[in-house]
Amino acid sequence: MRFWNTNLLLESEGRRLLIDCGYTVKYALRDVGLTLADIDAIMITHVHADHAFGLERAGYETRYTLGRRIPLILEPDILPALWEHTLKGSMGLSSDGENRLEDFFDVQPVVGHCFEFAGCALRTFPTEHTPGMATYGLIFDDDVIFTADSKPLDWLAADRSARRILHDCSLQSWNPVHATLGELIEAYPRTVRERLLAIHYGDTLEAHRGLIERELGGVADQGGEIAWG
Predict the structure, then answer these.
(1) Tens digit of pLDDT for each residue in 79-111?
(2) What are the Cα distances from residue 61, in Å, to 58, 80, 99, 203?
(3) Domain range holding 34?
(4) Residues 149, 154, 156, CA angle at the centre, nearest 5°?
(5) How far is CA 16 from the centre of its chain?
(6) What is the annotated signal peptide range for this record (predicted)?
(7) CB atoms near residue 149 (< 10 Å)
(8) How far apart are CA 19 and CA 150, in angstroms?
């Protein structure tokens, strides 16, 4: 594996919000000189392994090593699947006996699709990903759009703002639940694509980088930074 899972780290006012917590999260944090002890809160966009399986390690480490419950921010309709179908099998029982999600995390459901973290205003929006699954993207301070996992979005194709976009970009020729590079080129006008950086691209990136840089705004490289405000 050349690249770690697609997770973001928001840093504001000296605090850090980890957006998605996939199973490679500790390697990703290590590569930027951080550990789970440096994370102030976690936000989850959906329950797939590459976005949520790192929560098992985060929950155990913060509870038993760091002695705290880390805030876990998520849309309410993600909660049932996150515990009952994703984490309960490995975290439901421990040396303390039977557990709930709240024993490991300070669970903070998003209200009205908006929340604030360290002076940054965040807004969630539903994405077009796995049918029947609650999946969301994020908008940061109305300046940066993060789709997480998603097919192309009709409203984004009509967006005429200057907002930068971090967009799911599968490098397969066809994918039922991720936007392919070809779909991005077809679905979005040049005025949108020139603001769009590809994420979730996979280990064959270099074979496609030239086309991405010609047709999109470029690649959100692993470990890269975006500043605003």
Answers:
(1) 999 999 999 999 999 999 999 999 999 999 999
(2) 5, 22, 15, 29
(3) 1-112
(4) 70
(5) 14
(6) none
(7) 26
(8) 16
Q: Checking DSSP bridges between strand 218-219 and strand 196-199, what pairing results, if any?
A: parallel
Q: How far apart are CA 90 and CA 88, in angstroms?
A: 5
pLDDT digits (tens, 9 = 90+) for 8-27: 999 999 999 999 999 999 99
Residue with tokens 């840089």: 213
Task: Give me the CATH number covering residue 59.
Answer: 3.60.15.10
Cα angle 81-84-87, degrees, rounded to a multiple of 5: 95
Q: What's the domain count of the chain?
A: 1
Asked if residue 200 belongs to a domain, the reply is: no
Neighbouring C-beta atoms of residue 223, cutoff 10 Å:
11
- The answer as to whether 35 is a domain residue is yes
Please state whether 71 falls in left (phi above 0), alpha (psi between -120 and 50) or beta.
beta
3-class DSSP state of 107: strand
User: What does the DSSP 8-state code read for residue 170?
Assistant: B
Q: Which of 174, 175, 185, 178 is nearest to 149 (CA)?
A: 178
